[in-house]
């Protein structure tokens, strides 16, 4: 996929960061886990993988098996989260992520992820990345992305209005959630390029962040 970027400077008062596909490349694990799940349920793995990125597992299952009882999806989701937490083979940082997170020290930011706390902790550690102090994980919300609840909660915890936040996301569900929250979205990677965020970058080496005083954060995208 081709990622096209127009050099852009945005300003905000807080940044809200997705994890998988944005800070961490966990595609190898996601594919292993969901291919096994697809095989168990007689589904085409390629079609399954088009749906699952960015959502909590139970929400993906509800789309893929619409007649299945929700309690079955929740039980499956819990098992898969445990599998994903134990499997960090191939989990690596997105290029530029360590430097990007280092540049956010002292600036308002939060992790907003569809992973639960255990999985977020495991994947960030496997990728060698600092875990932000403010985190909105699966346990924190009642609805999965593309619902905006997670991003709105992140903004509230930081004490920042939604319109003053910038979201960094890679998936269709995440980009939709950010937009529904009334936030601007910087897309990261090839998946994001398909879903028309406000601006898109190939990876985080193309993003520079600095505090410029008065609570303003400048985000330069090149």
Task: Report on this structure.
By secondary structure, the protein is of the alpha/beta class. The protein contains nine helices and eleven strands. It has a six-stranded parallel beta sheet. Helix 9 links the parallel strand 8 (184-188) and strand 9. Helix 1 (27-40) crosses helix 2 (45-52), helix 3 packs across helix 4 (70-86) and helix 4 (70-86) runs parallel beside helix 6. The chain is globular and about 55 Å long. It starts with 7 loop residues before the first strand and ends with a strand.
Outline:
By secondary structure, the chain is an alpha/beta fold. It has nine helices and eleven strands. 44% of the residues are buried.
Compute the CA-based radius of gyration: 17 Å
Roughly what is the average pLDDT, rounded to an integer? 94
Strand order of the largest sheet: 6-5-2-7-8-9
Residue share in β-strands: 15-25%
Return the structural class.
alpha/beta
Tally of alpha and pi helices: 9
Order of helices and strands: EEEHHHHEHEHEHEHEHEEE
Looking at the structure, what is the overall shape?
A: globular
End-to-end gap = 18 Å
Largest sheet: 6 strands, parallel
Query: Number of DSSP strands?
Result: 11
| Poorly predicted segments | none
Fraction of residues in helix: 25-40%
Task: Record the SSE blueprint.
Layout: E1 8-12, E2 14-17, E3 24-25, H1 27-40, H2 45-52, H3 57-64, H4 70-86, E4 92-93, H5 97-103, E5 109-112, H6 117-126, E6 135-136, H7 149-158, E7 165-169, H8 172-180, E8 184-188, H9 190-193, E9 199-201, E10 207-211, E11 217-221
